[in-house]
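Suppose you are handed only these lines of text.
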Amino acid sequence: MKYFSLNHNSKSTLFHDAVKRGLAPDRGLYFPETIPQLPQSFFDNIEKMSIPEMAYRVIKPYVGNQILKEKLMEIVSETLDFDFPIIEITDNIAALELFQGPTLAFKDVGARFMARSLGHLNQGSKDKITVLVATSGDTGGAVANGFLGVEGVNVVILYPKGKVSEIQEKQLTTLGQNITALEVDGVFDDCQEMVKTAFLDTGLSSINLTSANSINVARWLPQMFYYFIAYRALKSKNKKLVFSVPSGNFGNICAGIIGQQMGLPIDHFIASTNVNDAVPRFLETGTYDPIPTIQTISNAMDVGNPSNFVRIQKIFNNDVVKMKKILSGFRYTDQQTKKALKEIYDLKSYIADPHGAVGYLGLKEYLEQQNEDFYGVFLETAHPVKFLDSVNKTLKLEVEIPERLKDTLSKEKTSIPIKDYSELKSYLLN
Ligand SMILES: *Cc1c(COP(=O)(O)O)cnc(C)c1O
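From them, the structure of the protein bound to pyridoxal-5'-phosphate can be written out as follows.
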């Protein structure tokens, strides 16, 4: 498989190089030259395969021969080494819990896959790699955890000061070793812009920089696994499936749509957002008009200008009509999100997190518009404990803190404050 740049001014390249670079030299996102098709027999027999076997077959064409079969199987097994429970909320609505990994967020899957792939591909190379990553909350912790102790790789995380939860901050500032956290005086989009500028900066060409945001194909593509895992579990229901994805940078939903284009039987996707609603507005008006980031209680989705939107456009060859057949979008305020948290709790005593609650709202709104009998799944992208303040206050209860998190919370924060790009650059050069 080769990857080309969506800016069309760089050469196509193979998996290893695309992962090492993150962004193409022309600053474009990499996109696979073809979307592989899985045979009908794959779906007929999906429940007979183990999850790692299934995931191996899904990801194999994207990796090509650059990682040998046994190694790739090992990487996939380790990546998916936890549960993905499906919790029924009503007769036709369920939550897919993606937060059972080490940092309690769905980003663990992409981060673990990327760390293991890059660590393996870079083995024996003299070149040290620096992974530069901007986080709106959960990416930093997942990437830090995935890459901790990986030889030959340093990780530098940029996060917006005061705009991530206490638990999120601790997860990315307490690990040490090859992980450094930079605390940026700004919002997430400032962090993301600095990362993009660093990639372009010829003054940094002595450093091998890559990204571990969902712009990196090794972080982005494995997110497809969730949808295959859910289909495998729900196939026997014999219902048409709809997925509602709480979306920020749109990597997760875009990976799901790629899975569908490979043949996975999913009827419809719903992009559920908070008031950072560039994509729902695009679906309504046909004009893409991003606005500056607005802070919300679902902070991992506080993204004004989602990076992966260009990939979604590519999937549908910029045809909005085609896109709308597969994708709908809805946006919700914090007020509505809190109401949804209560509603879900009242229905099933289920404690959702604010992101999952946004997903639930989008799903409900879509299902109410349909005359058909769908089965709807909303993704629970983070453990509610990561958003303790808003969940506890809204539901008037105390979410129990899992053991593995208590340890992280007791550790001392270490971060380096930075104000602008020049400070980032001098940090990287020293
Ligand atoms: C990152 C994140 C999202 C948004 O995912 P994208 O792939 O960026 O759209 C949603 N919920 C949580 C909890 C997240 O951490």
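What can we learn from it? The chain has 19 helices and 13 strands. The pocket of pyridoxal-5'-phosphate is lined by residues 105, 107, 137-138, 214, 246-252, 300-301, 355, 381-382 (CB under 6 Å).
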